[in-house]
Amino acid sequence: MPDTIQLDIARYSPERDESPSFQSxxxxxxxxxxxxxxxNYIKDKIxxxxxxxxxxxMGVCGSCGMMVNGEPKLTCATFLSSYSxxxxxxxxxxxxxxxxxLVVEMSDFMSKFRKVxxxxxxxxxxxxxxxxxxxxxxxxxxxxxxxxxxxxTLCYAACPVYGLDPFFxxxxxxxxxxxxxxxxxxxxxxxxxxxxxxxxxxxxxxxxGECTKACPKNVDPAGSIQQYKLTAAMHWFxxxxxxxxxx
Amino acid sequence: MSAPTTRSVPPHTPYHPxxxxxxxxxxxxxxxxxxFRFVLRELTSLGVAYSCVILLYFIxxxxxxxxxxxxxxxxxxxxxxxxxxFISLVLVLFHTITWFSLSARAMAVRVGGKRVPxxxxxxxNYVAWLVIxxxxxxxxxx
Amino acid sequence: xxxxxxxxxxxxxxxxxxxIAAFFIPLLLFFFALAFxxxxxxxxxxxxxxxxxxLRLARLFLFVVCSVPLFHWAHRFRYTLxxxxxxxxxxxxxxVFCYGGAIAGTVxxxxxxxxxx
Lengths: 247, 142, 117
Fold this sequence. Notes:
The complex is a heterotrimer of chains A (247), B (142) and C (117).
Chain A: E1 4-11, E2 21-28, H1 35-46, E3 65-68, E4 71-74, E5 88-91, E6 98-100, E7 103-104, H2 107-115, H3 137-144, H4 154-158, H5 160-164, H6 171-181, H7 189-196, H8 210-214, H9 221-241
Parallel strand pairs in A: 1-5
Antiparallel strand pairs in A: 1-2, 3-4, 3-5, 6-7
Helix pairs in contact in A: 2-6, 6-9
Chain B: H1 33-64, H2 66-76, H3 79-106, E1 110-111, E2 114-115, H4 118-141
Antiparallel strand pairs in B: 1-2
Chain C: H1 7-35, H2 46-54, H3 56-85, H4 91-114
Helix pairs in contact in C: 1-3, 3-4
């Protein structure tokens, strides 16, 4: 294994530049280093102006998402040696506006995430005297996979539909809606359906499947969206044929 | 974070002149092999449409008489149509293969509480396809 | 529901058409467009095929196989044009072309199969 590897980092300073450009740095290639380690090495030892987000450095916070060689990755969970002999290209997460260098603006995802009501919605609350909401392991299993999302938005960077249509709600938001829809304690499916059954909701998705490939937590957002399409379609037919029964 | 403005501007990013927004090229589907394979998968619908049209021509020929039936088969044997049919067959087969793996992922089938593994669903689809094709072939070749 | 988009109907037709196309069309296309015209397999005689297709069940089967996959094509091709060529601004024209084409095909197949003689 060679001693060093070259990283081409996308640089963009809104005060100075019209568009991003690449700057090359050579970092040591250590067997146990991840790309985030290399970025921190650059910031510590070579160029302190390189700007990027990171936090837990162990793949649970979702802060360090970037494009490495054109693929959305968590830089704390991607080994540097995978890109040997290099060079490796590090760019900010795709399809989001770039604030500076490798930092993107995520408020679009945040607002869409909020829109799908990612919390337990109850029509009637149970009084405290009646105790907690009980759930069997089977009921937990129904939605557990979708609850693993760490909001890293790698799926948005992978989804071409999101890139082409900025109104598209996106994989993580829909997966999170499904997480609550399938939760036995939740009673909010109707409310979420009104938001998601619009064209920019689930129907914009064409099951490219890239979101599931990019997801570091095996949430399978693509699967959740297709399952939700089936639910929404059945609901649509039911409300068409039996309007009184479904309110 | 300011509130979103009108519907014509995507509500996510209020216009900010200093944030860089890269443009998605019309040829986005050529920039990555997985994107290209996706578009190829979607284009299989053309093969499906072609097949429906061919079947409709045959049904029409049956009403027009035995000469029309023979003439249609001769027309289909021309080099251009053979090429088109061959490409359509490749597309239709690609549709079948991708459809079976997609439908396994699109449904959460549960038997007795446990989720049926996707591979099993895909495999049973292939078995059903072979059986159905065999039955159709029997009807047409006997 | 205050606004009821028609997308679920088209998606359901797309799915049903996809299933039908996946199971039935490969063999039918191979036989009728390649194997029979090129003589790789002996095609059924006109009388035999005519008799087979005249059966009510066969006509129903053929109607389904010739019409629902067309809606599969319509829905999928519409989105391919939207996303692939980014011509969403032509979306009324695309919708009419795709779904209109599928409806036309359905009408033609109903007519041909009903009036088979």
